[in-house]
Amino acid sequence: MKRHAVNTFGAIGVIALVAALWEGYKALGQAFDDVVPGTSIEFPVATDDLSMPHIGTILHSLIEPARRGDPTSLFGYLLGETTVTLREALYGLVAGSALGLLLAIVFLHVVPLSKGLMPWLVASQTVPLVAIAPMIVIWGGKAGAPPWMAVTGIAAYLAFFPVTINTLRGLKSPQKVHLELMHSVGAKRSQVLLWLRIPAALPFAFAGLRLAATASVVGAIVGELSAGTGRGIGRSILTFAYYYSNGPEKLYAAVLVSAVAGIVFVQLLGLIERFALRHRHAR
Questions:
Q1: pTM above threshold 0.85
Q2: I need a labelling partner for 146 at 20 to 30 A (CA). Which of 30, 52, 77, 219 fits?
Q3: Arch. (CATH architecture) of 80-281
């Protein structure tokens, strides 16, 4: 309980520090016309209200109407769009994690396949997402799949790799003496996998799932930009960026809400991890 309180206060402190730095930078730039005092060096980011709205302005925009003639607040609108994105990210996380777990088990037992495919899996993660996303969208469209399935596919593409790597490491983590003990009692390969390797791999797998959860949210947002979906926080960010000059605070608010949603998404997975590994944490 004490540790959770410390973590909470630490998070609040970081948020307060970031807000203070934002407002301090803006106040300094406004006071010296965006020039470093005593020099001719310009600030890297302009501090006018168009480039850097006040944090208060950004937060206040969340309670204002999202559109003219629509009583729905910006926060309500963004929350609805965020649920669409998180649903796509969840589907992608489930699909990518299932693929990652399967690959880890296959790589464990088929070493030549692991050595042959692993470099290609690593290479697949170095390709820029903005290059991969349009191809997945086109393939999905040719197959007659709805746009949200393409977004889910992009999220799964980013999610499977950390699950594969971390789970494979966990499956290999049991000590040699434990493996020899299992073999001495005549345990089959499947029994060694179920009774020894998978339980040992759970902490590693959850570590990979946390990384995959973050990646799936990013993939869903980027996918919405390429898939042409009518819903999602990614489309909202693109729309507010297009009309940036009419309300820059709305773009910052959309980014803020998407960031908070991603944090909540990962934290929910952390709760599942603590429940699944509660007996280990109690030791």
A1: yes
A2: 77
A3: Orthogonal Bundle (1.10)
Q: Which two tokens stand for residue 251?
A: 């773009």
**How far is Cα 74 from Cα 239, in angstroms, rounded to an integer?**
13
Amino acid identity for residue 174 in this structure: P
Residue boundaries of the structural domains of the chain: 2-52, 80-281
CB of 233 within 8 A of CB of 261? yes
78-136 residue pLDDT tens: 999 999 999 999 999 999 999 999 999 999 999 899 889 999 988 888 888 878 888 88
User: Are residues 216 and 99 in contact, defined by beta-carbon separation less than 8 angstroms?
Assistant: no
Confidence of residue 27 (pLDDT cuts 50, 70, 90): very high
Distance, in Å, from the CA atom of 218 to the CA atom of 207, rounded to the nearest integer, reads 17
Q: What is each CA distance from 57 to 3, 49, 150, 154, 271, in whole angstroms?
A: 34, 9, 36, 34, 33
Residues 6+ apart with CB under 8 A from 71: 65
Position 5, amino acid: A
For the beta carbon of residue 208, count every other beta carbon within 10 angstroms.
Answer: 27
- 3-state SS assignment for residue 201: helix
Element (H, E) at 70: strand 70-73
Please identify which residue in the block is written with the tokens 């206060």. Answer: 9
